[in-house]
Design goal:
Strand content: 25-35%
Largest sheet: 9 strands, antiparallel
Number of domains: 3
Shape: globular
Distance between the termini: 33 Å
Radius of gyration: 27 Å
CATH architecture of the largest domain: Beta Barrel
Number of helices: 9
CATH topology of the largest domain: Thrombin, subunit H
Length: about 500
């Protein structure tokens, strides 16, 4: 499977692979009992039979049919209410304006996606990847009218964009709901223009919330089994009250179509981004200056805390709001402004939407003791230039090997340290990893820097050798690593 944008590019979806979803093995057929068949084995045979069907009364049948009709009427009402607010968005490039046809006989086009009218003055919400690029943005309304967008503002971090069409009269704006008030199992409808087929509605439920799928920097997606296909990007996900609770953005697909796993940006986040773009022309985000990771069972064992409760602080930027508040690497963050946190993307959303300059309380667990710290978020700084792809020269490094773990490390100079953004006097550089060894299985890779082992800071290569000689390698080890992707605690099993 792959995660892909659900925008239709030309006649076929332009799918961008982001990451592989985990596959679940059902098991071999021989391990599944055969229904209605008795097998001769060494153990007592078991025969499985289907339970008898319950005989329903005429009244019960009528009630069941009426319930189904009531749901159908609800879907029909919501569709009629929302479809006038749903638009088709075409991102026309110079090449796509030429006359021609695709192999299936449809006119050739640039990127085609969906959008939803959020204000009768002409503001429309969609995805960034629908309108990104140098094309002209054409909006086609439900009644067939077409407009050229005069304003396009985007936020790639959330994959949200807004466009404005001029001089459009009698627009029907969708009602904006509250995505925090929607829950797993709730019915939802997805509306849009899949495969260029306008005014399409599909139904399903919310399958999960708080998903991070790796397509944008700031993610907290709603997952649904309502069919979302190429061209649905930017269209609304609505609840049974006819309120927009999400903006369709991506699908999991192994075939180019829906596999029953779709994702939407929660409307609370999308609406906040839209208001920021309208009011300021850009999104102003708050920032604490910490690296975090979820607490797995292995990490929980090392820190003597329950798994999946809180977030582990892996890095604190010098002179950042978190550093000024007294946060330290190895602290476990339990609450941000009285809200419990356990998922990185959830915490990121809390922080980014915090008011800059306002004081917030952080509740942390430090060595088993709870502490409350006061933190004042600052405006998020511009991201420094990425150094990915640059090679690290280790030809003159002093080296040492720990064959038991399957790892070879060495010292490094200030040039490497600047690329990694760390103090040159801290840690050792991983030069090589033995394939299939303990370190490899734990996720360590060449180019990482080890800065701590079992909560002991690694000051130099000789200090690392000393620490390793004093540790019991028959027990699991906790390393703090740094790389161009940030800091992370890693457990190497015994």
């Amino acid at each position: 499977m792959r995660i892909a944008r659900s925008t239709r590019m030309g006649c076929i979806a332009c799918m961008v692979t982001a990451f592989l979803l985990s596959t679940v093995a059902i098991g071999h057929a021989s391990t599944v009992p055969e229904i209605g068949i008795t097998k001769n084995t060494l153990t007592p045979s078991v025969t499985f039979t289907a339970p008898p069907l319950k005989n329903l009364t005429d009244s019960e049948v009528k009630n069941a049919i009426q319930s189904a009709k009531n749901l159908s009427q609800a879907f029909r009402h919501i569709s009629n209410q929302l479809l006038p607010s749903v638009v088709a968005i075409e991102n026309r490039t110079e090449n796509s304006r030429t006359t021609g046809q695709t192999p299936n006989g449809m006119p050739s086009r640039g990127g085609v996606g969906s959008g939803v009218i959020i204000d009768p003055s002409g503001w429309i919400m969609t995805n960034n990847h629908v309108v990104a690029g140098a094309g002209s943005i054409v909006v086609r309304l439900h009644d067939g009218r077409e407009f050229m967008a005069e304003q396009v503002m985007t936020d790639p971090k959330t994959d949200i964009a807004i466009v404005r069409i001029p001089n459009a009269k009698n627009l029907t704006a969708a009602k904006i709901g509250n995505s925090n008030g929607s829950y797993v199992g709730d019915w939802v409808l997805a509306l849009g223009q899949p495969f260029g087929l306008e005014s399409t509605v599909t139904a399903g439920i919310i399958s999960a919330k708080g998903r991070g799928i790796g397509l944008s920097d700031s993610e907290n997606h709603i997952q649904t089994d309502a069919a979302i296909n190429p061209g649905n990007s930017g269209g609304p996900m609505v609840n049974l009250d006819g309120e927009v609770i999400g903006i369709n953005t991506a699908i999991s697909s192994s075939s180019g179509g829906s596999d029953g796993v779709g994702f939407a940006v929660p409307i609370n986040l999308a609406n906040w981004v839209a208001n920021q773009l309208i009011d300021h022309g850009s999104v102003q985000r708050a920032f604490l200056g910490v690296g975090i990771q979820p607490i797995t069972q292995k990490l929980a064992d090392h820190f003597n805390v329950p798994p999946k409760q809180g977030l582990l602080i892996t890095h604190v930027l010098p002179e950042s709001p978190a550093a000024n508040a007294g946060v330290r690497t190895g602290d476990i963050l339990l609450k941000f402004a009285e809200a419990r946190v356990s998922a990185p993307n959830e915490f990121q959303t809390f922080v980014e939407r915090a008011k800059i300059g306002q004081t917030y309380q952080l509740t942390i667990n430090r060595n088993g003791k709870l502490q409350n710290l006061n933190c004042v978020p600052q405006s998020q700084p511009n991201r420094p230039d990425e150094s990915s792809g640059k090679q690290i020269n280790t030809s003159h490094s002093n080296r040492t090997s720990t064959g038991r773990l399957g790892i070879r490390v060495g010292d490094f100079d200030s040039t490497v340290a600047r690329k990694m953004g760390i103090d040159a006097s801290e840690g050792v550089l991983i030069l090589a990893i033995q394939p299939g060894g303990q370190a490899h299985r734990a996720g360590l890779v060449s180019g990482m820097i080890l800065t701590e082992v079992n909560h002991n800071k690694i000051e130099s290569l000789s200090h690392f050798n000393q620490l390793m000689s004093e540790l019991n390698l028959d027990e699991s080890l906790l390393f703090l690593t740094k790389s161009q992707n940030g800091s992370q605690f890693v457990v190497i099993d015994s």
